[in-house]
Amino acid sequence: MSGAGLLVASLCIPVTVIPGITLLHNRPNPREALSLLASALLILINLGIYRSLQQGQTLAWQSGEVLPGLRLELAAEPLGVLFSLIASTLWLVTTVYAVGYMRAHNEGNQTRFYAFFALSIACVMGIAFAGNLLTLFLFYEVLSLSTWPLVVHAQTERARQGGRIYLGLLLGTSIVFFLPAIILTWWTSSTLSFTDGGVFDPDTSPLLLAVLLVLFVFGVGKAAMMPFHRWLPAAMVAPTPVSALLHAVAVVKAGVFSLLKIGIYIFGLDQLGATGSREALLYLATFSLLAASVVAMRQDNLKARLAYSTISQLAYVSLGVLLAVPDSITGGSMHIAMHAFGKITLFFCAGAILVATHKTEVSQLQGLGRQMPFTMGAFLLASLSIAGLPPTGGTWSKWYLMLGTLETGAWLLTIALLVSSILNLIYLTLIPVRAFWPSAAGPRRMNEAPIACCIAIALSAGGCIALFLFPQVLYQLISPITSGGGMP
């Protein structure tokens, strides 16, 4: 298959299984087998794209003109390939988990869940391989719309309220900030194509660049930069597999990925580092990083605590973009993968606890380690990864982010990263510590979640360790980004 064919196939595979999933609504085993088959095939396609990129091949596709001078473009570059591999791998793992969770929890509308999940993954592939801002914006907005039915899955008033906040904030930030930023970029540079070194001339107005950076940072609402973050806790009304999708596979990763891509290929690192509004946005990201951690410590609801943890972790990637040096870009790119595996494990564990014990509050988990030792052990491992401690992958992404702050002489940001990691350690690892603490109360018998859930937890937790042992695979993939050789 040609390079262009591989790119188109990565978008088409998730879409083509949606009719089959819908037709098999009364036959859950074939329906879920079709989802698993599609996710496995997508992994193979993305591995083919990865191999082609490593061999130096150019993978690109263009449509006809949508408007004069504007086309839809797909292109494979290292950051997009990284994102596509993470999303396709975790689509498979999350589908395995969902089979156990959705059945054990007697969730309704399961066919709709699998269908919109597939559509969301297709949008993620479009974002990952977007060759210009027009293509990125199109798939970015369809992703918001395609995940909304998943957020309101329960169809309760609380779910609908959460869905209104979710869609209102994401579409609102796109219309008010993101779209004007794209129009201004076209007006200023006469191109929307992602380009090594950026698209703006050296004599572009510094004020215009400062305004554009603010518009892009706030416009990419999926990155959950404060004060446009409330959609993320509101979306926690969704079932746990949806929460895992939002936090690890699709939505929030699409946000920080888009910021990275815009920073690297629209501004360029040199011009981004000299942009006037960058420093103020850096400190806003630092505030988000610390404030969300403090709020997370106060949440008794387990999913709410994990939601605010995600807001904090997304700020790490935003910080990496805004520092605009090679080490910080490396750290931010790696953190997309590290956080994905760590956070999806935490949500899988939260769902397993709900299915097995019907408990949702942190204060209810005392002594649960005897009942669910596998689940709570995986929770501890994933917590270490989020905090950035060995033997987990989060160690390396935070290491490079720390080097980025030192490279720029931003000592205050270095301290903020250290403080935040300590807070991560406290509000996450205390949960499994309390669970394994001896308690006279509660059952002592084993009561783990269904086997499908446990298999998914083992795979994602194993990923946290694998990323620690083999970080060079990620580093070699993304190293061309910082050397100006990313886009074909």
From TrEMBL:
The chain crosses the membrane at residues 6-24, 36-53, 79-101, 113-131, 137-154, 166-187, 207-225, 245-268, 280-297, 306-324, 336-356, 368-389, 409-437, 449-470. GO terms for cellular component: plasma membrane. Keywords: Cell membrane, Membrane, Transmembrane, Transmembrane helix. Residues 130-423 form the NADH:quinone oxidoreductase/Mrp antiporter transmembrane domain. Its main location: membrane. The keyword Ribonucleoprotein does not apply. The keyword Plastid does not apply. It is found in: Cell membrane; Membrane. It is a multi-pass membrane protein. Signal peptide: none annotated. Pfam families: Proton_antipo_M. InterPro entries: CPA3_Na-H_Antiporter_D, ND/Mrp_TM. Belongs to the CPA3 antiporters (TC 2.A.63) subunit D family. This is Monovalent cation/H+ antiporter subunit D family protein. It comes from Parahaliea maris.
